[in-house]
Task: structure prediction
Amino acid sequence: MKILVPVKRVIDYNVKPRVKSDGSGVDLANVKMSMNPFDEISVEEAIRLKEAGKAEEIVAVSVGPQKAQETLRTALAMGADRAILVQTDEEVEPLGVAKILAKIVEEEAPKLVITGKQAIDDDSNQTGQMLAALLGWGQGTFANTVSVDGDSVEVKREIDGGLQTVKLSLPAVVTTDLRLNEPRYASLPNIMKAKKKPLDEKTPADYGVDIAPRLTTTNVSEPPVRQAGEKVEDVDALVAKLKAVGAI
Amino acid sequence: MKTLVLVEHDNTEMKDATLAVVTAASQLGEVHALVAGTGCASVGEQAAKVAGVSTVHVADDAALANQLAENVAPLVASLMESHDAFLAPATTTGKNIAPRVAALLDVMQISDILSVESEDTFTRPIYAGNAIATVKSSDAKKVITVRGTAFDKAATEGGSASIEGVTGAGESGLSSFVSEEIAKSERPELTSAKIIVSGGRALGSSEKFEEVITPLADKLGAGIGASRAAVDAGYVPNDYQVGQTGKIVAPEVYIAIGISGAIQHLAGMKDSKTIVAINKDEDAPIFQIADIGLVADLFNAVPELTSKV
Result:
């Protein structure tokens, strides 16, 4: 079985984003960028399936700027076998990404696509579900546990009230949640080896899909700033304050 | 504009999350609601009473029992032939179904809206709520998920919508329901609780979490939340998680105990009316947004607080 793992290069999760003063977006100049944390979990899950003998090949793919190569190299260093960069400097919306991925799936014929449930930059939480719809595949979103068995996969999903388990016939799309696994760090020898693994470069035009944006961002602003209140000395003062604001 | 709202329910009861979506939809135009389930006639009746809803479509089909996205999305897509906008709550149900509908309709979804600016323009949080984007959609049909804390809840009484039966596409054959582990609790649900007591990594174990957090929550009649760190460490189940990718809450009072305040956590609770923080690290980022802060060892302070409220 082949697994396709779409990954996205995003702002590092430890960086506090700053809104540009002209309202055109978030300032990403000289900001540390990393693999979307949910996608790291996806890469890890694919590697574990391979290690368990359930998968033979892992193909990482990213739609993004030239520098998304670094993100793909990280996936390769973790243990993916090869990578595809669909290079574009335009911002591609989840629908466009899903259309490109659908074309790659046609070419690569993976049995499973594992991707993050959400990218921490646009917070859309759409690509996996859209890809599943375009392919006519089942979807196991917000995965907490993934068990592949023959021609089906059971996905335990993190839902608002607790956990839900669904069974999908393969091929299928799985999107990952935080508790699925703890991604490994790439070791130095593996980082060196990853440099020699194949990385194909493509462009959206190679796939002939329309990725023109449907949404126009007209403004990006800071959220209302919350001011720090005051610190109280002890529990009695805290109780008095809570009573004063009518909280208790 | 004719809108279609996805009713969140468990085949018996309509969930509160639906009500904020009705408010958002009513700012766009006429509100129709869809109840997709099985044996869900009573949910249809509840939805028909919600103020502002004019028609309720009820799809009663065994294939919709667990609202699997593969079975619900084609039904919604077919109903969208006669509607202009589909709105779902930004719950795990809505987030599972809506993008599938959007792709079937070749529409780019607008996720997690905070406001309706006009019939094609909305605001939504990006970067864990550290920025608010105003986005304009050029799609003829709109597919939207709605952040529950950003809109008032529509009244559950006062409406008298007509109820119409609709037929779904049946089983997709792509997926099936296996089982569910839903925590049963007398506590208020996080997303509708007036007070939330939330615990972090500093609690150290699930026993301590239970011992320190639960009595205070009991005393206050509060919901219980947690930071990602506490959930990852296994102190509490995943449905307790408050944050960017967990639950978004905005109670009257949010009491953060032993939570340092990573931006991902703040993203889920910073719209709370009053934020209280108890943490022994006086430099913890949580204090930068807390209305009332207490620098103290939580293992002493919280039991004392519990005894005094």
